5-methylcytosine-specific restriction endonuclease McrA (Nesterenkonia xinjiangensis), 164 residues
Amino acid sequence: MRSLVLNAGYEPLGVVSSRRAAVLVMHGKASILAEDGTPIASPTALVPRPAVILLHRYVRVVRRGPSAPSRRSILRRDQRRCAYCSRPAGTVDHVIPRSRGGDSSWENLVACCGTCNITKGDRTLDELGWTLGTTPQPPAHHAWLPHELDAPHELWVPFLEHAA
């Protein structure tokens, strides 16, 4: 089980192991806002397993613009859907092929299924008569959030709605 960590202002900071969350609570650095039903067993005690914790002190987070694209970040941005046919994607494709001067930027990389990637090869969309389902662009401002928040645990949902 993982635990959602909220900053003192109730905005989501990240996701940690429930063991790390329990340590933060035991050291007085956080409070438990929601518990998972199963406790953490130690040799001397049963400790409640935190699902959501709130830090007592505000942590200032420096957020920068989007970093360089990676295969993982492109697949996450495009929700693992092929930009050409909307089937599940497992690879990344250059819209303008590198052999034709395309770069590895957020605007030129899209998630792609294996079939479309092989079919497209080093050709352009105009040559194939294909179109993109969406225009590739850098990820939204909330993309720094952990991938666990893409499909949050049911105990986290009320706290994420509060933060939004």
